[in-house]
Amino acid sequence: MWPWGPSAAIIVSLVSFVVSQLLVGGLIMVILLAVGWSGGRIQDWLNSIAGMFVLVASSEGLALGILAWFIKRRKANWRILGFARGVRAKDIGLGLLWLVIYFTLLYTVASLAKSLLHVNLDQKQELGFDHLKGHAEYVMAFISLVVIPPFVEETIFRGFLFTGLRKKLPFIYAALFTSLLFAVPHLLESSSGPLWIAGIDTFLMSMVLCHLREKTGALWAGMLIHFLKNGIAFIALYFS
Length: 240
Description:
The protein has helices at residues 6-34, 39-46, 49-73, 89-117, 134-166, 171-187, 196-216, 220-239. The chain has one domain. It is mainly alpha-helical. It is built from eight helices and no strands. The model has no long low-confidence stretch (mean pLDDT 92). The termini are far apart.
């Protein structure tokens, strides 16, 4: 039995994923002001690679903390989110297969969006990790963009949110709603307007990941796809 339903799943997911970022940002500013930093110095540090790394790691950690607090209050455990078993060879095989399917879907839908709706596929996603210098900055960017998101986002969206929605909704509606909520924050990652290609990309990927969550009963295949997709994007962005 799932100890929470759609309403709790939506509210707690949004609080853990969105509010945690605002809380961490505000807390960091308060701490640095208390030790005598000026507003300008704080802003410069937050915009630096080290500052972004601390912000991402802290906010994602807080998001998991909020999730853990709620799960404990409902007398449940992490197994129910898709951690009831370890990784199997099938997870790896399905992950690799569906990675190819996902890229095929993305290419097809993006091409149609460009030709029919004139969507700009060249918009730049503002990740906050620009002009990397030295091994340390590359490592911090890699951890922030490739390592942390697959675990945290799969746990929150395909684990906690999708599980709660599936308590009362058919698969297709639970997957669509999960994917919409997952895509919206990525849609806003540009100061020049909605980043439609990122919205399309993350929506399609989420639909694939929801399918794998349903099919395998675990998060491992989805995490593999998420990790490989982010890793490929990281290499294309910083080493091409």
